[in-house]
Write a structure and sequence with these properties.
Rossmann fold, five-stranded parallel sheet, 14 helices, about 40% helix, binds cytidine-5'-monophosphate
C-alpha cells in the first residue's frame, strides 16, 4: 500500500495511553501520521510522546495556525481518520456533527473514511444514547472497531474496553484499502447471511449456530468497494450493516423467495447463509405438549429445496454464483474434496470452504477459508478477521468476474456477425 496521510484523533479516556500503540503501528507501516488529540486526551498522554512517536508536530488548539486554515487543512489532506479511543462524548459529538474543537473540525472537513475505536464503561456503551449515536455513525459509513470485552479501568469488566492497538491499526488500513479500491462500483451484489430457522410450533424452531458475521462482513466490504448490495438476512446475531438493502427472512423457503427475486440481474450472488436442509413436515398451530410417559419424540422432516443448486442449475449468465461449504471434516484433503463435490453438485462458480465445529467458524470473529474455482483448483486461501477474509473473498470475485467478462468479450469477437 502506498503511504497514506493518516489523522489519528485521540480523545479523553484512559485508553488514550494505548493510542500511542495505534500511532506507532501506523508509522511503522510506513504512513504519515498526524495526531489530533482533544484537550482531554492531553491529560492522559503528553504531547511530546505523541510528537516523538508520530514524528510530526501535534496540534490541538482550534485557534492556532489560523493563517494556514488548520481547522480544515488537516481533514482535507487526510486519506484516513482513525479515532482511538473514541469516548461516549466524542461519539455523541461526531453523530451530531459538532465542531467545537480541532478534531471535530477535522472530521467535518474531510471526505476520508473514518474508523473509530470506542472505549468506555459498559453502562455508557450500552446506554441507548450511545447506541443510537453509534448506529448513526455506522449509517454514515463510519467503521466501528470494538469495543472488546474485558477488564475495564476499575475492577469491573465487560464490553467497553478499547480494541488492541494492532487490531485497530489493521482494521483502519483494511478500511482505507477497501475505500481506495472501489472495484465493485456499479455492480449489484446479493449476499445471504445468518442461519435459517424452521418452526415446529409457535415457540420452537430447528436452527443452526451461524451468527451471520461472515456474510455481514462480505456485504459491508462489498458496499465499501462501491457495490449496490442486497443483504438477505436470516436471523442475524449482529446488527445489519447500513447502506445495504436489507431483506429479513427466517425460513429456508423465505430465503429462497428473497434470493430468487434479488438474484435477477445481479452480478454476484454470495450464499453465505447456513440454510436448513430439512424442515418439520407439519408446523403445529399450538405449542407441542410432552407425552405423560417417559417416551421420546419423533419429528418428521421434509427436504428443503437446495437454493444454490436451483440457481446454479438454471441459466445464470452474467451472475457469478459463490457458495459456502461449512464442514466438520478434520482432514484437509477430504475437506477440499467435500468442497469440490459441492461446487460440482450445485453448479456454483466458486465455493468457499471453511471448517466449522464446536469452537471454530461460527460465532468467532476470525475465519480460515479456502476458495475453489470452477476447475476445482484452489484460487486462494485466507485467514484472519472475518472482515479481512471478506476482502480476500471479494478479491477473487472481482478477478473471476473480470476474467469471465473478458472471456465473453473474446467469444463475441470471434462470433460470426450475421
Ligand atoms: O449442502 P450444504 O448445506 O453444505 O451447502 C452449503 C451451500 O449451499 C451454502 O452456500 C448454502 O447457502 C447453500 N444451501 C442452499 N440451500 C440449502 C442448503 C444450503 O442454498 N437448502
Amino acid at each position: 500500500m502506498s503511504p497514506l496521510n493518516i489523522v489519528v484523533g485521540i480523545t479523553g479516556g484512559i485508553a488514550a495511553y494505548k493510542a500511542v500503540g495505534v500511532v506507532r503501528a501506523l508509522v511503522l507501516a510506513g504512513h504519515d501520521v498526524h495526531v489530533v488529540p482533544t484537550e482531554g486526551a492531553l491529560r492522559f498522554v503528553g504531547r511530546p510522546t505523541l510528537e516523538a512517536i508520530s514524528r510530526n508536530p501535534v496540534h490541538t488548539d482550534l485557534y492556532e495556525g489560523v493563517a494556514e486554515v488548520r481547522h480544515v487543512a488537516i481533514g482535507q489532506a487526510a486519506d484516513l481518520i482513525v479515532i482511538a479511543p473514541a469516548t461516549a462524548n466524542t461519539i455523541a459529538k461526531l453523530a451530531t456533527g459538532l465542531a467545537d474543537d480541532l478534531l471535530g473540525n477535522t472530521v467535518l472537513a474531510s471526505e476520508a473514511p473514518v474508523v473509530i475505536a470506542p472505549a468506555m464503561h459498559t453502562e455508557m456503551w450500552r446506554h441507548p444514547a450511545t447506541q443510537a449515536n453509534v448506529a448513526t455513525l455506522r449509517s454514515r459509513g463510519v467503521t466501528i472497531v470494538g469495543p472488546a470485552v474485558g477488564q475495564l479501568t476499575g475492577a469491573d469488566s465487560g464490553p467497553g474496553r478499547m480494541e488492541e492497538p494492532e487490531v485497530i491499526a489493521a482494521a483502519a488500513l483494511e478500511r482505507a484499502a477497501a475505500s481506495a479500491r472501489r472495484d465493485l462500483a456499479g455492480r449489484r451484489v446479493v449476499v445471504t447471511a445468518g442461519g435459517t430457522r424452521e418452526p415446529l410450533d409457535p415457540v420452537r424452531f430447528l436452527g443452526n449456530r451461524s451468527s451471520g458475521k461472515q456474510g455481514v462482513a462480505i456485504a459491508e466490504a462489498a458496499r465499501a468497494r462501491g457495490a449496490e448490495v442486497t443483504l438477505i438476512a436470516a436471523n442475524l446475531e449482529i446488527a445489519a450493516p447500513e447502506g445495504c438493502d436489507i431483506r429479513r427472512v427466517s425460513t429456508a423457503l423465505e430465503l429462497q423467495q428473497a434470493v430468487t427475486d434479488a438474484a435477477k440481474g445481479a452480478d454476484v450472488v454470495v450464499m453465505a447463509a447456513a440454510v436448513a436442509d430439512y424442515r418439520p413436515a407439519d408446523v403445529s398451530e399450538s405449542k407441542l405438549k410432552k407425552d405423560e410417559g417417559d417416551g421420546g419424540m419423533t419429528l418428521e422432516l421434509v427436504r428443503n429445496p437446495d437454493i444454490l443448486a436451483g440457481l446454479g442449475g438454471a441459466p445464470h449468465d452474467g451472475t457469478l454464483l459463490m457458495g459456502f461449504a461449512a464442514e466438520t471434516e478434520p482432514d484437509d484433503d477430504r475437506l477440499l474434496a467435500l468442497g469440490r463435490a459441492k461446487l460440482e453438485a450445485k453448479g456454483a462458480d466458486l465455493i468457499v470452504i471453511n471448517r466449522v465445529g464446536w469452537h471454530e467458524g461460527f460465532a468467532s470473529d476470525e475465519n480460515r477459508v479456502v476458495v475453489i474455482g470452477r476447475d476445482g483448483e484452489i484460487v486462494t486461501r485466507a485467514h484472519g478477521t472475518k472482515a479481512s477474509v471478506a476482502d480476500d473473498i471479494l478479491d477473487v470475485v472481482v478477478s473471476e468476474s473480470t476474467t469471465a467478462a473478458s472471456a465473453a468479450d473474446t467469444t463475441k469477437e470471434h462470433e460470426p456477425t450475421t
